Amino acid sequence: MARIPGSGEEMPAPLPTFARPMASAPSAPAPNDVFLSARAAGFARRGQPWFYADDLIRGTVLPSRLVRVRDEDGRDLGLGCTGAGRLALRLCGPWPGEAVPDRQQFFAARLQAAVEARAGQLGPEDGVRLVHGEGDWLPGLVVDRYGPVLVLQSTSAVVEQSLDAIVPFLVDRLGARSVVARNDLAVRKHEGLPEEVRLLHGQRLEQVDIVEHGVRHRVRPFDGHKTGFYLDQRPARALVQQLAKGRSVLDLFCYQGGFALNALRGGARSALAVDQSEPALESLRAAAIANDCRGLDTHGGSVFDFLRQQRERNAAFELIVLDPPAFAKSRRELDGAERGYRDLNRQALRLLAPHGFLLTCTCSHHMTLPRFEEVVRQAAAGLPFHVVLRQRLGAGPDHPAPITHPESEYLKVLLLQRMDPA
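Above: the chain sequence. Below: its structure as tokens.
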């Protein structure tokens, strides 16, 4: 049995290949060649993108750089980038020829492909995930575009060393007025990189507006959550707008109220938004005025306490959105995360009006979809009505998630409906 790097799980070893032509590995490998063991090469061919130092049989990972990856017999497996952290090698996809391209050539080709894939989402007030790491064969790089502002996150030393190739290309290709590094990520320490937020190019724009589904949102690139906005929830916000007409809506862990605003835009009778952050709620109230949305109310405080208070008052809502922060940031936290998700979902289900909808989310890649659905089933057990699963959603197409790399499919969204007996 062989482990899947990064998962702690095991997979069967690759099946033997018969009548396999043999090739001799070069007697003097090129300095930028690294060789995977037979077992690791099998995983690479199946689409696994991450490898540890003990998966390599020849070649060096330091200094961090672009390399040509080969199997034990010297067969080409494409490009990779090496690093100093636990992940010694991350695959970067196929590349023609035998040589390793220079940084400008590599990043220009990969970034151009990423931009072309989002061609329909590059209007002057659009928000879009422009680069999504492994999904764009650019591991360790995320780039979000908010109109004239690009916000970049780097978790790879190779990416960090290549900003002089990445930033000028994006500025020239997209005409960006501002490029911000939102590298306030603890995971950067694994590659020996500092946590920091800094301006990489152009003007320091503290805020910028984007328009999505007809709703204007204010984004703060330097201090907003994530890179300034939750672009991954675009499909779920569209669904809430479609479902909201004439309904009373409850938006839990609302942050700046993306769901509440879409509900009101969709004709909700009322929307109550709950979050612990008063500055976030103040931004939501300002956005409601800017969007001419009526019927908004806000509540500052603990969502857990709020749900218990509403249950005691026999309150009911016809559409509830439950989008908490990631409770499981590591596998060690999964048991506690399950209890939190179970408690929240059970309390939210109890507040549903007859035939009401619950849109419930998890953004932890450690909480797999089957596991999340099982937690929700447990939350629904014993209630005096049926809970029906109506739809599964995830991030939008600007967040490509290779099916062979489940870690990239971190967002899971379930649409549930309460069904009562006649």
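The domain at 103-208 is CATH 3.30.750.80 (Transcription Regulator spoIIAA).
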